[in-house]
Specification:
5-stranded mixed β-sheet; two-stranded antiparallel sheet; 124 residues; alpha+beta; single chain
């Protein structure tokens, strides 16, 4: 099963924690939304594969990796992309998103079904 054209279920739920990481139906729907509204347009723009370092996190996985309790990863609404400033700026300038955060080593982007804030942070 794929989340979108270029994201497999296995890739979207991968964790090195050893814990179960199985999204429910609401989380799967949210994952499909962000994949199709953010990831696929980005991949099309770049014309090459894009590596996701973190996507869905169960509450247990999120806790183990030090995520905040309100993390959008737990809802399936966020992904961390192993890319740099060029990708951050392209998402910021071209896509609808809830948050786009330039972290030191990746871009965190979130998308939700309605009421996307368009919040931009540069923490690099």
């Amino acid at each position: 099963m794929n989340i979108s054209k270029h994201i497999t279920y296995s890739e979207a739920t991968h964790t090195d924690t050893g814990l179960k990481n199985i999204p429910g139906l609401a989380e799967l729907r949210a994952m499909q939304l962000i994949a199709n509204e953010v990831f696929e347009p980005l991949r099309l723009h770049l014309g090459r594969p894009v590596r996701i370092s973190s996507f869905y996190r169960s509450p247990a996985v999120n806790k183990k990796v030090g995520g905040v309790k309100t993390s959008q990863h737990v809802k399936g609404e966020a992904m961390d992309i192993k890319e740099g400033r060029e990708v951050f700026e392209w998402i910021r300038d071209n896509l609808v998103f809830d948050q786009c955060i330039m972290e030191p080593n990746w871009v965190h982007v979130s998308y939700r079904d309605g009421n996307n804030r368009g919040e931009v942070l540069d923490l690099s």
